[in-house]
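hey so i finally got around to running the thing on that chain from the lab meeting. sorry it took forever, my laptop kept dying and i had to restart like 3 times. anyway pasting the input first so we r on the same page abt which one it is
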Amino acid sequence: MANRPLDILNKALQTSVIVRIKGGREFRGVLNGYDVHMNLVLQNAEEIQGGEVTKKLGSVVIRGDTVVFISPSQV
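ok and heres what got predicted. didnt touch it at all, straight out
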C-alpha cells in the first residue's frame, strides 16, 4: 500500500528536515508538528542559503500553502 503524504510527515516528526518555500527560501529544523493543510512547526529552525546558515530563528510556523518540498536533513 502506498504511503500518503501525511503518513510520511508523521514518520518525520521529531527529526531534522529541510523545507523549501515559494521564493526559494530554505529552512532547516526539527519537525515538531503539522496539520492537514501542511502548516509546519519547526523547532531550532535556521534559514539556510547555499548550504550555509544565515539566521538562527528558533521556533517557526510555516504556512502549508507556501511549501514546495520537505526533505530529511543530514545535520
